[in-house]
């Protein structure tokens, strides 16, 4: 007997739609726009995913919605609290990939560190996500779904979101911009532009595009004060060197006097932590509104790097401070549960390179002291 070939299309995932997408859907269907706004609120503000519970939507609309769409969240594979209050979620995606999200409470502030890709193709030498290779971009729903889960746990949205988990956000431009729009939207998470921070290793053309469409805050993974060293540590520098990156960053914050660029600088023993490096960094950032975040390197097996001793980090910081640069040292959080910066790994099946898999590790997250 001949079998029937039926292709089952996954339903539209409403978690993938920002305000504009929702408006377009409702316009297309001839549904009232304000019901679309209420639907966004139900999903993101109230955490409701079943249409029958969305009591202010007309019954007929709820039925039509159920035929067409659903709210499909990433599953929680496991959740791990740490001794210092940090929590890490391992989320399981529909295709079996895993990503990690970290929540860092710090006084009144609760910061969520969100992933934007499964793995990362940029291969920074000191980053275990990079070492895992790249598999794919996350969808809007997979990015914003991380925030959805955290908001349910807290009973309110976190105060801050940083795109500093797995992946390079600017390499997943459209989905990241739409997800950040939802983070800032009053119908969803309502965070101000000063409380959503995108961290990038410096994809200059994408940064220039971002300036046109988003006003989030910017953190840039600098890690070296000159091209020779940065070429080695952050290989994307070979394509977009410092003389292109720094002006693009300045342009990004131009026009807002309250803004500064956060420069992330991982402290690698004997590599980038000398007095000469500090002096070069001061020269490089002269006149640029800056905050420098010194990040003690989070080691992982086989990295080949060591963490600068605390005294050396402090001496480096003092030198920056004396020159008038704002500089803080991040403290490592969640290292007992492998949740630190650059140590998030999830489960990545690399499709970008064909190599012998490198060692899988776990890490901890960083927050400001
Ligand atoms: N891809 C983006 C965002 C994710 S990485 C970026 O590179 O900016 C978030 C931060 O963690 C970056 O500053 C990154 O350089 C840093 N990082 C990566 N590996 C690290 C490690 N092993 N120890 C400390 N920080 C690390
Ligand atoms: Fe990718 Fe950022 Fe890691 Fe570099 S530091 S490999 S850009 S995640």
Describe the structure in your own words.
- This protein has 369 residues and is of the alpha/beta class.
- 32% of the residues lie in helices and 21% in strands.
- It contains 11 helices and 15 strands.
- The strands form 3 sheets. An 11-stranded mixed β-sheet has the order 3-4-5-6-9-10-11-12-13-14-15. It has a two-stranded parallel ribbon with strand order 1-2.
- Helix 7 links the parallel strand 10 (196-200) and strand 11.
- The longest helix has 15 residues, at 140-154.
- The chain is elongated and about 70 Å long.
- The model is unreliable at 354-369 (pLDDT under 50).
- Residues 120, 122-124, 127, 129-130, 167-168, 201, 221, 342 line the site of iron/sulfur cluster.
Summed up, what is this model?
With 369 residues, the chain is an alpha/beta fold.
